[in-house]
Amino acid sequence: MPENIYDHDECFSCQVFRKTKKNKSEYTFVGNGYALQANKGTITQDNLFCFFVSPEEPSGHPDWFDVRNHDVMYLLLGAGPDAPRLAFEVVVAEATPDEPPYNTRFIMSRRDDLHLPAGTVSDDEEGDRDLQTLNDELFNRLRLLGSAARTWLQFDRAELKRRVCDKVIAHFRAAPPPEPREGIENGLAFLALLLQEGSEHGLYDATMLQLDQMIFQAVAELDDDEQVVLLLPMVDVEDLATDWDASEWAKVLRTRLVPEWEEEMRSIVLHRVELAQVSAA
Length: 281
Hints:
The chain is built from eight helices and six strands; from the N terminus they run E-E-E-E-E-E-H-H-H-H-H-H-H-H. It is α+β, with helices and mostly antiparallel strands. The protein folds into two domains: about 100 residues, no CATH class; about 140 residues, no CATH class. The chain has a six-stranded antiparallel beta barrel with strand order 1-2-3-6-5-4. The radius of gyration is 23 Å and the shape is globular. About 5% of the residues have low confidence.
């Protein structure tokens, strides 16, 4: 266990679950552990949180486990089997060599659909729910999904891509270059220079990270329907629910599925940067 996590005043007990291979809508228990929020008091992207996570048992113990992408972590808000639990899904792990002794930080998305309230619900209580009401709710949501699909088909994805590209390019054009270079007047020209010099340039990674952040911001400024139309064709939706409305789809696309569309959107923007530089020349 990484040093100090268990003894930290803001440490929570947690439980980790993982999707089964046979049925990706089901989860199996992986193990108990401890979680410490890493970004408390800082601003993160919509619905994203950072945690250090440590298994309850040390490496080599039969109950030790590794945390993987798409695992679901339940944060226990109390002691005992009936404590309420907040659900978070692992989006990506990142190394934090500058924050010893915690070597890995996990970026997670809050899963509001998986939270567990205090107490347990018995089979009898669950059986008392009105089945017809549940069927009516599902029917209405699916009916609204059909209506939303007709709305989505009216949007021009090429135009949405152009709007995102224009916002990002305008930002870099208005920004000064991060380092002085003859003939490089602004951040956009510097970005084009990096495309020529490649990843060997010392500022390449930092500039690409800034580019991704600006793309995310431009996408988030679109309305919910526009976000769905732009991003949905870029991701694998096999394991996702099909009765969400536009706002729910947009939230999932902006949080849980960023790694699936981020690279494609970056490629689209960089292609527009190359075109802009050619036309300027």
